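Memo to structure team: turn this sequence into structure tokens by end of day. - J.P.
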Amino acid sequence: MWNNTHLNDILWYKQLMNAFKNRKIYKTIETWAKSSTLKPLILKGARQVGKTQLMLELGKKCFANYCYCNFDVDGEDDIKPIFEKTNNPSEIIKLLENQKQIRITNKTLLIFDEIHRAPKVMSALKYFAELSDGYKIICSTSLLSEILHYKNSEISFPVGKIEELEIHPLDFEEFLLWTNPFLYESYVNINLTRVIEINLHNQLKNKYKDYLIVGGMPECVLEWINVQSYFSVRNKQNQLLRDYENDLLKPSNHIKIASLKRIFDSIDKQLAKDNHKFMMSLLGSHARLRDYDAEIKWLINSKMIILVNGLKQPFLPLRANEIANNFKLYFLDVGMLGAKMNINPNLILDESSNYIYKGALTENYVFQQIKNNTTNQPYFYSWSGSSHEIDCIIEFNNGAVPIEIKSTTNVKSNSLNQYLKQYKPKIAIRLSLLNYSLNQNLYEIPLYLICKIFTNLNKQW
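Reply from structure team:
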């Protein structure tokens, strides 16, 4: 007999699945499902960013049925040996049908969750692309570093035989759609050519503050929708942080667990410094980058952290001017960073408050939105002996676009003024809590509109 707890779980699950139809990336996944390609699709992303829900929703909406295998749970121990026995798609299908007790046809979606736990599955994917009778396979991994390690091992990685997509936490636009669809409609209609109506501007500023606290992890956003409690959301975030810390105990043998944990634990301390640059000295008095390089790359490839490199010069192509040993590391989600830093939500809600992580939290928000909305890599640029710095430079339409990031309405910036005089960019952007304005080629953009600037940059404004 179902009690209220069971009914609430069912309603929560239905809400969860309906919400995932409104993720931007879902349309791309749906296009893959409806295409003629037989290349398996791998969704890459950190733990709990919504990969599983996206795959299940796809199976329900676009296929007659689906066969779900999660290689990260003990209950699937009987599935892994299937791929140890054979790489033949027909044989694998027969064994899966027998084990799962379902009929699998070319109208069935095969879902392989957390495939880094079953490396032989990786080898089998290329045979499905080449030999299978029209079977569609979608996979996920939350530890991409483990798969990358297989490329250098005895496992046959299906190079050129798969498609890949990165899945991130919800960006601000998705958060707004999930939490306030009516306000989202007003947001969508904003045109970056004129001042935003003051009441709308204030409402969106308040939602931006909510996003800084709640972040974009789907489970945390749904908790906020259902409970409207920052305390309850923070509990969810702290549990996710514990899950992430447990993942640090599971890397391949070539990764040093103690070093991995030391880097992960230092991120908030690194961002507490004025310039936010990653300093090896915070890992230990004798720490050297070469001793931690593999572990830093593991965290980056596993999508737990966001890497932002410095530039020697802000000239195109920016990648050619990248400084490998001069970088900043941000967290995958601004809400989880706030939890890691143990920032009181009331400090974030109060615009006049001045707390130690305020600038870092705002920068983390910006870089998180950039990762969600463009494949263009962000950089920062320091010059004149580091006395001047541009927080973000990104390459768009054959130009280097400087982006100054301000956490309040105080936008005084000697560095940006010096940059404009010295490098004369076609377009410059300053993100802050101010309303929209345009002064020659300097666009003043509210922080809550950052997702819109990429569309405008593509149109060359």
